[in-house]
Amino acid sequence: MPELPQKKTVRTEVWSAIQNARAGRFPGILGRIPNFKGAERACELLATSPLFDKAQFIKSNPDSPQRKLRHLALVEGKKLYLAVPKLAHIKPFLEIDPSQLHEKELWQASSIKGSFEYGRPISIEDMPKIDLIITGCVGVTSVGARLGKGGGYADLEYALLRQFEKVDEGTPVVTVVHPAQILEDHSFPMLEHDTSIDMYATPSEVFRCKRSYARPSGIYKDALEKEKIDAIPVLRRYLLGKNL
């Protein structure tokens, strides 16, 4: 489905606001889930929430601002599940089991590169029920709207997990953001396939959203371009019935 112009505009405004605040960090801001100064503190605050404390099986994005949260999850003995880039493998997720790692390996395992080094490829069918989703955002609102970087993969990953009953409507979705990423309610549209959030943390506070959007109930084939279906093995198998 083509990107909405309004989302592109808001996304660009957020990236510019972080740059103007001189809050950006490596690997950069434009075109990314923005890494920002204070991200580690935001992760530490979010890790104090009951949603994080109770979770044992966590699906996470691989981006830099959420890395400290992934590390804290591993330190606390929680299993992590990260999608391979663009869901391009037959087994589209990596399972990182901290019980199989030395304490000194946990920080490296929480990185993008480390997830491939220490993670085990796993099919969606073999994954456990997920307790918590950590997602990356470009923008958020107090009513739970989420603006991604435009690729649509976070929403697709959620839809796949929902389709295979690994998450449900109540599975909490959380993130960490810079204050410049907090937007006015209804400042951008949420579509049927977009995934809302329940909680976000900044370096100074944790905020529980008043979620007002339904979440995708599964895969919406009509919202997917044929090229994307063809490029993702699990979609070819599920939607087209092709054995891989």
Q: How would the blueprint of this fold be written?
A:
Layout: H1 5-20, H2 39-46, H3 50-54, E1 57-60, H4 67-75, E2 79-83, E3 93-96, H5 106-109, H6 112-118, E4 120-122, E5 132-134, E6 139-140, E7 146-147, H7 153-163, E8 173-176, E9 199-201, E10 206-208, H8 226-231, H9 233-240
Parallel strand pairs: 1-2, 1-5, 5-8, 8-9
Antiparallel strand pairs: 2-3, 3-4, 6-7, 9-10
Report strand %: 5-15%
Helical residue percent band: 25-40%
> Whole-number average pLDDT?
94
The tally of strands reads 10
- Low-confidence runs: none
CATH superfamily: NagB/RpiA/CoA transferase-like
Q: Largest sheet, described in full?
A: 8 strands, mixed
Distance between the termini: 26 Å
| Rough outline | globular
Secondary-structure-based class equals alpha/beta
Highest CATH level, the class? Alpha Beta
| CATH architecture heading | 3-Layer(aba) Sandwich
Give the domain tally.
1
Tell me briefly what this model is:
The protein is built from 9 helices and 10 strands. It is of the alpha/beta class and 244 residues long.
What features would you describe in this structure?
It is a single chain. The chain is 30% helix and 14% strand. The chain has 244 residues and is α/β, with parallel strands linked by helices. The chain has a single domain, classed as Rossmann fold, CATH 3.40.50. An eight-stranded mixed β-sheet has the order 4-3-2-1-5-8-9-10. The protein has a two-stranded antiparallel ribbon with strand order 6-7. Strand 1, helix 4 and strand 2 form a beta-alpha-beta unit. The relative contact order is 0.17. The mean pLDDT is 94.
